[in-house]
Amino acid sequence: MTSHGQREISFLEAIREALLQEMRKDGTVFLIGEDIGRFGGVFGVTKGLQKEFPDRVLETPISESAFVGCAIGAAIAGMRPVVELMFADFVGVAMDQVINQAAKLRYISGGQITIPLVIRMPFGVGMRFAAQHSQTLYSIFTHIPGLKVVVPSTPYDAKGLLIEAIRDNNPVLYFEHKMLYGLKGNAPEDEYIIPFGKATVIEEGADVTAVSCALMLHRTMEAVKKLKKERVSVEVIDLRTLVPMDKATVLESVRKTGRLVIIDEDTPRCSIADYIASFVADEAFGYLDSPIKRIQPPSTPVSYSPVLEDLYLPTSETISKVIKSLC
Amino acid sequence: MITPEKLLEELGKEKLIRIYSTMVRIRCFEEECEKQFTVGKIHGMLHVCLGEEAIFTGACETLRKDDYTIGTHRNHGLIIARGADPRYMMSEMFGKKSGYNKGKGGDMHITPHGLGVICSTAIVGSGIPIALGAALSSKMKGTDRVTVCFFGDGATNQGTFHESLNLASVYNLPIIFVIKNSQFAVSTPITMTAKLKRLSKRAVSYDILGITVDGNDVLRVFEVVREAVERARNTRGPTLIECISYNRQNPKKYDVEIRDWEKIYGDPIDKFEKRLLKSSILTSSQVEEIKRSVVEEMERAVRFAEESPWPDVEEAFKDVFA
Question: Which residue of A56, A69, A79 is in closest CB contact with B160?
């Protein structure tokens, strides 16, 4: 992995720092969501921000439709709102505002309306939160034209992608994995952006291309380290953004390795993994030496019991087994 | 409440004639749309504001040019009341390149954004939260621009209505919610879907002011909305205003009911016209002149739309993202 300086911060701190720096820089940036003020949000991401910006960190009633819609209206009227949904799962309550309003009003208006909106959504499995507080859901939104979908995997990317999201003039759904909040990594203190649509090759390899993001990317890296010892060389791609999708980086890698594994936390039917498999089959069919493999959870809700929840996500052992089976 | 005579005097001839002309323009635009829909020049669906002219006109007359408004899929009246050009409206109705939305919105979405129209959204109740955001932006920027949010009686049974009234109240937003109570949500009478006789009473739950007015009386609508706008501009919070009216398009299937409504409420334009004639603000020849020139304006709009080119094919791929 490339070095990003000496300073180490957590994934959560990286998100907070991006919010803080953008709020200091641009008076139109404001935060809105449940319990994000005095309490700092249920995961503590916005802790302390209301102290510096008492009028720009807005706590809301439990009314997701109202405050997501309110953010859309404020964005149309020239503000840059950043919404925090307490859990990605709660987007279901505000679905009309996201898929019918945020995604479409610009198009409908013939380009007159601009909606610079960010919706932050903590997602993912691992905290024993059961089926309505553990979903991934990003694939659903990649299906809707007009929405950008961002999934950071490291503190460095979390900060750079969030700053880019806030400055972007479109609705951006920013998915942050709950199990990564504590992850430490290097990230510069100064502001920087990571452009959308640029995946990163975090490990070069020759035998298999592994495409992933968020928590599953880290499990993939565990598997890849073990496989190295067995002389299996895996090229690992961190997608960073799902919309726009960096097809070129994925295709280039598959043309080199001839094999593709997609490791994804979202449930399998009509998922982002399916999309990646389909465009690779379309555009690099002749380069493939084996079937494309998708490693994903089953098509079931997430269970509560530790025994059952732990079964849900693919483990690094599963990932390494599948990769080995291709070679 | 001031007497109509006093209000007439206060408004003055020029404004009164403007209000009357705007109502006639809405009526005439919508009648033209019905004609063009029948001959297939307007595609898809048609949602007209026939019978609701007084609500849009009276409410918008109280606004400054820089104030925000947001309507619904039944929006033509609002847009005309905000000063839109019927030529670009009709072009949009026809799906032509010269339409306000470049032909990408149509009947339900005409959006002259530069005239303070935030957006025109067609999912019932969905514009109410968006209106909050416009109002919030005024508050955060420290301006005194107000937002007027229009929706039908049907929207008052959506969760967004209740969530938004509550949030507007809690944030003390400069916003006016206007219910166009047309008595019907498509075919379903409001009496079947709400027990309350006065929908403005729903304001009580959110500790904001709620008022019901005769939505076919343009002067009453003006007076009540003006007061609410004044309150909002001076940071005294939101108001819910129910304007009782009827929309001629939906209840057509229910002849008995429409005759009843007409008997009870009268036609908003006829009512105002009679008052202006009686007060000698207009003569009957002036009335004829206004109507004639509006009819011509709409005929010009249709010609303009007909002669406008279709959108370029590439247009389909533009404006997905900024």
Answer: A69
What distance in Å separates the CA atoms of residue B273 and residue B284, rounded to the nearest whole number? 9
Indicate whether B295 pLDDT > 60: yes
The pLDDT score that the predictor gives to residue B261 is 66
Residue B264 has phi, psi (to 5 degrees) of -75, -50
Cite the residue boundaries of each domain of chain A with CATH code 3.40.50.920.
200-326
User: What pTM did the predictor assign?
Assistant: 0.97
> Least CB-CB distance to A69: which of B114, B129, B319?
B129
Please tell me the distance from the alpha carbon of residue A195 to that of residue A197, in angstroms, as a whole number: 7
Instruction: Pick the residue of A31, A101, A108 with the most B CBs within 10 A to test the interface with B by mutation.
Output: A108
CB-based contact B133 A69, cutoff 8 Å: yes
For A109, which of B119, B128, B136 is closest by C-beta distance? B119
Q: What share of chain A is helix, strand, coil (3-state, %, to 5)?
A: 40, 20, 40
Report yes or no: A109 at the B interface, CB cutoff 8 Å. yes
Q: Could you say which of 3.40.50.920, 2.60.120.200, 3.90.1700.10, 3.30.1330.10 is the CATH number of the domain covering A200-326?
A: 3.40.50.920
ipTM score assigned to the predicted complex: 0.96
- Annotated catalytic residue A143: no
Whether A66 contacts chain B with CB within 8 A: yes
Contact B167 A61 (CB under 8 A): yes
Q: Using 50, 70 and 90 to split pLDDT, how confident is the model at A92?
A: very high
Our CA angle for A183, A186, A187, nearest 5°, is 110
How many alpha carbons fall within 13 Å on the CB side of residue A135? Answer: 18
- CB neighbour class for B194 (10 Å; exposed up to 12, middle 13-18, buried from 19): middle
Biggest alpha carbon distance in chain B?
Answer: 57
Q: What is the pLDDT of residue B252?
A: 55
Q: Which of A55, A65, A167 to mutate to test the interface with B (most CBs of B within 10 A)?
A: A65
Report, as an integer, the average pLDDT of B243-265: 69
The arithmetic mean of pLDDT across residues B159-172, rounded, is 98
Which residues on chain B are in Cβ contact (under 8 Å) with A23? none
